Amino acid sequence: MLKIINMHLRQIGLLKILMIITSILAAAIIITTVILHGLEKDGKLLELLPNSFLHKDIQFQFWTVFYYFLSLFLRAGIVLFQGLLAFQVISLTQQTTRLQHVATYPISRAKIIIGMFATVCIFSGTILLILHGIAFATIYFKLSGNVSISFIGFLLKDFALDFFYVLIGMVPCSVAFIKPKIGFVIGTSLLLIIIACNAATASFKPTNINISASILTIFTLIGFFMTLFSIHKFNVLDF
């Protein structure tokens, strides 16, 4: 299985990794900045903040909401990237003779599927943790000493949700194998983004991750069962 992961990671290359990190971060910052300036101009920053933040100065409110949206768009970018990567690693492999070649490796077909899916999840997860980690560290030191322990706890629990954002990559991976068309794969990623991001936005003001955690858990379970179905489908294929 590690051979499958290493093979696909070598195909991606370091240069592409750096380009992806830069592109996602730049896009997230630009979109977040545009949205935040609009909210600040309309005086709507407090609509996304806990009531305890009413007495905070405008700069403090701005940077808190900036982190909210930056983390939101970083995750959205990663989920979209998962779809693109799943199409490249899984769908294109399936549409060529490469999958038949890989199937001749002296490992089970289940491990081949898991290896391809793991490539997408590990690669996208590493990028997400790096980008979100930088954003979290920056906002933590910027707001340190000005927020309650409970709010820092909320931010930490929200950061931990990245684990689920990595695992829901199983969904576009499964679609990429079951229905290897770019429209279906990217459409699945966009649907995940819409639902997950709306759930995340709903958690901002009450500082409660229960809605997000529940939605992401459901998607993770769906991805798990879709992965089992993909393994079954691959096992019955006759090359």
User: What proportion of the residues is helical, as a percent range?
Assistant: over 70%
**Class inferred from helices and paired strands:** mainly alpha
Tell me the β content: under 5%
Largest sheet: none
Distance between the termini: 20 Å
Helix count, DSSP H or I runs of 4 or more residues: 10
**Rg, nearest Å:** 20 Å
Secondary-structure element pattern, one letter each: HHHHHHHHHH
List low-pLDDT spans. none
Shape: elongated
The whole-number mean of residue pLDDT values reads: 83
Number of strands: 0
Notes on the protein architecture:
By secondary structure, the protein is an all-alpha fold. Helix content is about 80%, strand content about 0%. The chain contains ten helices and no strands. The chain has helices at about 1-10, 15-40, 60-95, 100, 110-145, 150-160, 160-165, 170-180, 180-200, 210-235. Helix 1 (about 1-10) packs across helix 5, helix 8 (about 170-180) packs parallel to helix 10 and helix 9 (about 180-200) runs antiparallel to helix 10 (about 210-235). The longest helix is centred in the N-terminal third of the chain and has 38 residues, at about 60-95. The chain is elongated, with a radius of gyration of 20 Å. It starts with a helix and ends with a helix. The mean pLDDT is about 85.
In brief:
The chain is mainly α and 239 residues long.
List strands and helices in order, with pairings:
Elements: H1 2-12, H2 14-42, H3 58-95, H4 98-102, H5 109-143, H6 149-160, H7 162-167, H8 170-178, H9 182-202, H10 210-236
Helix pairs in contact: 1-5, 2-3, 3-5, 3-8, 3-9, 5-10, 8-9, 8-10, 9-10
